[in-house]
Amino acid sequence: MIRNQDDSMQEPPKMSTKDLNFYYGESQALYSISLAFEIKEVTALIGPSGCGKSTLLRCLNRMNDLIPHSRAEGGVFLDGEDIYDQGVDVVALRRHVGMVFQKPNPFPKTIFENVAYGLRVNGIKDKTFLRDRVETSLKQAALWDEVKDRLHNSALGLSGGQQQRLCIARALAVEPEVVLMDEPASALDPIATQKIEDLIHELKTTYTIIIVTHNMQQAARVSDVTAFFYLGKLIETGKTESIFTRPRLKETSDYITGRFG
Amino acid sequence: MIGKSDTIQGRRKWLQGTMFGLFRVAALINGMALLLVVYFLVARGWRAINWTFLTQPPMDSMTKGGILPCIVGTLCLSLGAIFIALPIGVASAIYLQEYARPGRVVRVIRLGINNLAGVPSVVFGLFGLAFFVVYLKMGVSILAGSLTLAAMTLPVIIGATEEALRGVPNTYREASLGLGATKWQTIYRVVLPAALPGILTGGILGLSRAAGETAPIMFTAAVFYTPSLPTSIFDEVMALPYHIYVLATAGTDIEATRPLQYGTALVLIVLVLGLNLVAIIYRSRLRKNR
């Protein structure tokens, strides 16, 4: 089938939410969020603490399922399929939608076993395959050169920045299509942060990335699209450069210029 | 100005010094208690210990000879108890901590476990007699004794395991689930290994307690005297704590067997400390392999 370039511009989004409401018990955390995440783009979710951006992120791989008495209403779609549908296998979903957490959280295992973990739990035993995939993932996460001689040492001996890149490598090893990042650099020093940001630039050639960040400059630097949240509502979304240079709404401009939040 | 603040400083320093001193004394008392017990036993019991004592059965109405059947019996009983209680206890703790949704069922189970911990050991003995020995027709045997001791050590193991599981950071669970692991894979591959040192501590505590108890085995496993070593789990055995009790209260010549009593007590405490030591070494090796 022949497609011209204009058609490919109309590609459906990799993920999207439609009228998504989310509740922790009685209190509502998200109000009717409809947002699309385009394939191989970086979307930044910004907003003051408690605005619901992390909650939204955790709806995208149903990590919120773990919280008792929480519930989601509305739809979250991955390639057009509603991930909150009855028949959806959450375990399989999380293989497609990987996650990197705020604080580096490597397992108390070796560097190799950390990266191989996702493959092992998926039943892969082939040693050559595991070794190759671990190497590829560590290279993708720009960590290979630093750890290649000590793959069988404990991951807890790495620095914070290295640990976070290890966590990224671990997420990439299962070849997800979407990578969720929850303030991945907030616990890191500026140099380690720089490395993570460079990495995000690299990764978006392959992956669809959604990142929560408190750091406005970071959002401006790494993302293609920015969505601004406030009190559980999506206030404004658009191309990052237009959000940061000419926001349509006053709340958005107040927040990104640091007047509140 | 400076002088005034110096007095305040001085008073605060003095208070701090005094308090730390008190804490240090409290900690020392703990250490001293164990040292005193060990010293007392060694001083009075070491003369009784020799090769015959460790390798022979009692002789001459238990006024001479050794305590081999008691050593073997206690090992069988306490190891048997731990082999029964550890899997059940760990499984219960995993259920309560990782699977069960908080609610009435969990509250009732917890209440049961806490009350089990408060039951006097002699009650366990009578329960073991009525249930395992008589009702289940196990007779006075290693099996009945181990089961009784296991019932008694369960709360200790469940408590320690729950504590250890609670100590595993939730970020490990999230990371694992986020990589597409199932809940069971997460527990088996990440949570349990991380909690293992704590679980082993529970096992050690349980084992020590099982080895040292008299009341629960009095009616269920231990006998006054048998020269033969057990050949199956349905055999009755002698046991160190019960032997001490018998020699000290109902022996044929209580005064003459004092050295034997202390010797037996010394062997018991060395056995318990030895079992602990094995588990502690294993635990520290686990911790190092992180």
Structure write-up:
The complex is a heterodimer of chains A (261) and B (290). Chain A has 261 residues and is an alpha/beta fold. Chain A has helices at 5-9, 53-59, 90-96, 111-121, 127-140, 144-147, 160-173, 190-203, 216-222, 240-245, 250-256; strands spanning 15-24, 27-37, 42-46, 70-78, 81-82, 97-100, 178-182, 208-212, 225-230, 233-239. Chain A has 11 helices and 10 strands. In chain A, a hairpin with a 2-residue loop joins strand 9 and strand 10. Chain B has 290 residues and is mainly alpha-helical. In chain B, a hairpin with a 4-residue loop joins strand 1 and strand 2. In chain B, helix 1 crosses helix 11 (258-288) and helix 3 runs antiparallel to helix 8. Chain B has a two-stranded antiparallel sheet.
Radius of gyration of chain A: 19 Å
Helix content of chain A: 25-40%
Question: What string gives the helices and strands of chain A in order?
Answer: HEEEHEEHEHHHHEHEHEEHH
Specify the biggest β-sheet of chain B: 2 strands, antiparallel
Sequence-ordered SSE layout with sheet pairings:
The complex is a heterodimer of chains A (261) and B (290).
Chain A: H1 5-9, E1 15-24, E2 27-37, E3 42-46, H2 53-59, E4 70-78, E5 81-82, H3 90-96, E6 97-100, H4 111-121, H5 127-140, H6 144-147, H7 160-173, E7 178-182, H8 190-203, E8 208-212, H9 216-222, E9 225-230, E10 233-239, H10 240-245, H11 250-256
Parallel strand pairs in A: 3-8, 3-9, 6-7, 7-8
Antiparallel strand pairs in A: 1-2, 1-4, 4-5, 9-10
Helix pairs in contact in A: 4-5, 4-7, 5-7, 7-8
Chain B: H1 2-45, H2 51-55, E1 58-59, E2 64-65, H3 68-99, H4 104-118, H5 121-135, H6 142-166, H7 170-178, H8 183-212, H9 215-218, H10 240-249, H11 258-288
Antiparallel strand pairs in B: 1-2
